[in-house]
Amino acid sequence: xxxxxxxxxxxxxxxxxxxxxxxxxxxxxxxxxxxxxxxxxxxxxxxxxxxxxxxxxxxxxxxxxxxxxxxxxxxxxxxxxxxxxxxxxxxxxxxxxxxxxxxxxxxxxxxxxxxxxxxxxxxxxxxxxxxxxxxxxxxxxxxxxxxxxxxxxxxxxxxxxxxxxxxxxxxxxxxxxxxxxxxxxxxxxxxxxxxxxxxxxxxxxxxxxxxxxxxxxxxxxxxxxxxxxxxxxxxxxxxxxxxxxxxxxxxxxxxxxxxxxxxxxxxxxxxxxxxxxxxxxxxxxxxxxxxxxxxxxxxxxxxxxxxxxxxxxxxxxxxxxxxxxxxxxxxxxxxxxxxxxxxxxxxxxxxxxxxxxxxxxxxxxxxxxxxxxxxxxxxxxxxxxxxxxxxxxxxxxxxxxxxx
Length: 404
Known about the structure:
The structure is a single chain. The chain has 18 helices and 13 strands. The protein has helices at residues 4-12, 21-28, 49-63, 76-79, 94-108, 123-126, 131-138, 143-146, 150-157, 164-180, 192-204, 241-249, 253-263, 268-279, 284-300, 304-317, 339-345, 352-360, and strands at residues 17-19, 35-40, 67-72, 117-121, 184-188, 211-215, 327-330, 337-338, 364-366, 369-370, 377-378, 383-388, 392-398.
């Protein structure tokens, strides 16, 4: 049986903040399983590795014997989460939300255990709420408190409009916790305000306030911005094994450790041992091989990871590229190195316009993967092999990777 101390160590792995940790300790010592909630608005049809940071933490709670509630925000999804937005989001249609929600249900069981997961839709109680009850809910929070939220405050200060329905989003998210009697709610660091609203509403309705656990936001392949499909810096869990593996091999050596901590199921002691081996001379590429094989196998079956690795090696180490590739070192740039400029500065094209034209034609590859995003920015600390056409290659190091 796992002790409270051991359980806390697992729960704290990768977590940004736990409010309040003493309350969590007390609840872990209770004789009943805790109700662990995380909400996902079905605003896009596919989940990516950024979403799995929360799913992995939910799985850890399952492994500790607790009840996981996967809340699909089909009602709140039609409002649109205003978190981090500088403009009012366009509400989604009911059909769009439902279609996306169906794909979420299919994908989450690649990580969560079906028999230990309760999937709920917040429309099941919100559709039944009448106007009087909604007004009562809205009375539990002031406009001043809402404007304490960083994104609302910035928009208000700069004269950007804030629609009234956007204030309802954190209230409804908090009310979900009341309906579900959540003991713990998980969310990204950008969700902290909404999670704390849940604590306050539970107090109002006479419930013990939920513990809030925030997880870091996973940066995308550019190493700078939040992983997002709209930014084309994502790794989708429904992508092919070769796509997932190739994309993971493209991350920087520094970013590799963050992905291991937040995405891998390996014990932290193993990851620390790998860090020591790399410091002693082990090739970081071999660590990425291990990470790539683990993630691919999680979503495509036990053998898929090693098979994807084999195909990757065959492409890039057994004659798919020239034996001698010129090494080019470029200084880092704030916000990432624009890929068109990188191709020009590496001598692979004569101008950025040629680079953009070649990308549009599908003639540019990064580590063998065809590049389609002409606005891609390459993170500092990364090393990749760039190919333009059939014969132009360069191994480009951006900034200081700490390796030769």
